[in-house]
Design goal:
The protein is an alpha/beta fold. The protein has 15 helices and 14 strands. The protein has helices spanning 60-71, 107-115, 121-138, 158-161, 167-173, 182-196, 248-258, 262-271, 274-279, 285-293, 297-321, 331-336, 338-346, 357-362, 387-399; strands at 2-8, 12-19, 24-32, 40-45, 50-54, 85-92, 103-104, 144-148, 204-209, 215-220, 223-227, 326-330, 369-370, 379-382.
């Protein structure tokens, strides 16, 4: 079975075509700058061919037409006819309390995603556009499945997901912790159990998805008990350009002093803060790392804050779990920035965690492996995430039950 995996953004559409017989990616690509005159379409095949062109894609329907044509193209195509694509799996950021698992798409599901747009206005609106465009291009006979970033976190107990505001806001607006990066946390935690040769039901795992957007999740027996992101992906610890958790009075104080509207303050917290705001250099950790090595004090401060805050979340989740069998690092920073992993792990030396420094340095660039020593009290792994594969697997499982 060949499954097309879609991640639609407001002005982009990423895709992968996966052959589920061997879980091989046959082709992948990206439609960028949708809605602009100078759109960019990129398509790469598993045998190294690459198609890149500037093309006008006024909406997601036109973007899907580009994907459709590329998949069957005489030179760059990977299937003879579109009938070989048996199903489509979509990533959806916000499933709220309504969607606790992946589901087959029908009109009621689309309407449910639309109702959740206020909780994720940019993301869910784009997902709905992508789903409707996909149906228009591929037809209603091709089954489609939606996989939610929030669904893996649906097992959190109320004591973990409730915020300390009047309960009526939870009842009226669904104000609570939802968590994100769920497909990533699910994949790496399950893969960690496989590498340990154990059943995930018998493990307490802390997964650290560290990238430009970051989150940490506590998983007991294969189920999430807590996660760092909240109502939105802004909560948690310092990210590329996001604040992470703040004293709420900081927000109102700045708004009053600077005369900012809620929308303007939202931009400050999401786009101008975090590593960018502290360092004054970049939201990209590679740039900040280079500046810190060159002696820039603010860049070093940004590094110190990030590592300290990661350590606090990991340590807190160890207490919440009542122990820890394994820590997993994944995503851009987690997979490639060995110095961050070393600092965080060294903070738990007092608990008997021992890092193999050489293995840690070597395990970058997409490599998977254990980076703790054999006698470490907690096992530590680097596991490249694969959210698309999770979406494809869920899609296959659901479609086969139709």
């Amino acid at each position: 079975m060949k499954i097309l995996v879609i991640n639609a953004g407001s002005s982009s559409l990423k895709y992968q075509l996966i052959d589920m017989e061997n879980e091989r990616v046959l082709a992948k690509g990206n439609c960028e700058r949708i809605g602009m005159e100078d759109g960019i379409f990129t398509h790469k095949t598993d045998d190294g061919k690459e198609l890149k062109k500037t093309v006008n894609m006024p909406d997601h329907t036109h973007a899907f037409m580009q994907v459709k044509e590329a998949l069957v193209d005489a030179e760059y195509g990977v299937v003879k006819t579109l009938s070989e694509v048996k199903a489509v799996g979509h990533r959806v950021v916000q499933g709220g309390a309504q969607f606790s698992e992946s589901v087959l798409v029908d009109e009621s599901v689309i309407e449910g995603i639309e109702k959740l747009i206020p909780l994720a206005p940019l993301h869910n609106q784009a997902h709905v556009q992508g789903i409707r465009a996909c149906i228009e291009v591929f037809g209603k006979d091709v089954p489609e499945v939606v996989v939610f970033d929030t669904s893996f976190h649906a097992t959190m107990p109320p004591k973990a997901y409730m915020f300390n505001v009047p309960y009526e806001y939870y009842e009226k607006y669904g104000i609570r912790r939802y968590g994100f990066h769920g497909t990533s946390h699910r994949y790496v935690s399950q893969r960690c159990a496989e590498l340990m040769g154990k059943d995930s039901k018998d493990l307490k795992i802390i997964t650290c998805h560290l990238g430009n957007g970051s989150s940490i999740t506590a998983i007991e027996g294969g189920k999430v008990i807590d996660t760092s992101m909240g109502l939105t992906p802004l909560d948690g610890f310092m990210m590329g350009s996001r604040t992470g958790t703040l004293d709420p009075s900081v927000v109102t104080f700045i708004m009053e002093k600077e005369g900012l509207s809620p929308k303007e303050m939202d931009i400050v917290m999401n786009k101008k803060s975090g590593m960018l705001g502290i360092s004054g250099i970049s939201s990209d950790d590679r740039d900040v790392t280079a500046a810190a090595k060159a002696g820039d004090a603010r860049a070093q401060l940004a590094q110190d804050i990030l590592e300290y805050q990661i350590t606090k979340f990991v340590g807190g989740y160890m207490v919440a779990l009542g122990g820890c069998d394994a820590i997993v690092f994944t995503a851009g920073l987690g997979e490639n920035q060995a110095h961050h992993r070393e600092v965080v792990c060294n903070d738990f030396k007092f608990m008997g965690l021992k890092l193999d420094k050489e293995l840690n340095k070597q395990t970058v660039g997409g490599r998977e492996g254990k980076i703790s020593t054999p006698d470490s009290s907690i096992e530590v792994f680097v596991i490249p995430t694969n959210e698309e594969l999770v979406i494809a697997r869920d899609t296959k499982r659901i479609v086969e039950t139709i």
